[in-house]
Amino acid sequence: MSAQTLAIAPAARFWLWLGLVALLQTAALLWMVADRNRVLTSGAEVVLPVIPVDPRSLFQGDYVRLGYEIGSNQMANDNSNNARRPVFAVLAKRADGLWERVASGPDWPNNVTPGHVVIAGHVRWSQAEFGIETFFVPEGKGPELDKLIGDKKLSAVVRIDASGRAALAGLLVDGQPAYQEPWY
Question: d(Cα 165, Cα 85) in Å, to the nearest integer?
Answer without folding.
Answer: 15
